[in-house]
Amino acid sequence: MNYLVIGLLIVGIFLLTVEIFIPGFGIFGTLGVVSIIIGIVLTAQTVLQGILMFLIIAIFLTVIFSIIIRWATQKQFYHSLILRDTLQKEKPEYNDIEYFIGKVGRTVTPLRPSGSVDFNGVRLDVLSNGSFIPTNQKVIVVSVSENKIVVELFQDNHQQENQVKKIREN
Length: 170
Known about the structure:
This protein is of the alpha+beta class. It is 49% helix and 18% strand. The protein has five helices and five strands; from the N terminus they run ααααβββββα. Helix 1 (2-21) packs antiparallel against helix 2.
């Protein structure tokens, strides 16, 4: 019977140690505490003796775990357990939709008055300035308000410089 009690206590301490280093739902910790309590119940002859054994084991485990954690934080093992990198995405230039003012794109769907336009691989939902614009036409962004991008049909080569200059001035 002594070997069973010693085995339960050792298994309980091992499971609590595993719980510290392996994230989970507390299964290892719960099994470790249950194993220690069963070992104490089988060993203790009185309730007071059981409580005293539990307190001694709790103090012992606290000291041992604090030493293990302090040792682990100084070693490479600890650094392999903690994720130091963050998942911050670099903010692309086109996240600020005002960037598109004056940009020329090609309609992917007809604009009646809303539809989609491709700006060099960036596909955005836009509104036309009120007129129907068929598919595969060049359009230019004339204004942006809140999350609405307003476009109009892009003029031929002679008028496009004036059109872009007028848009950029506004």
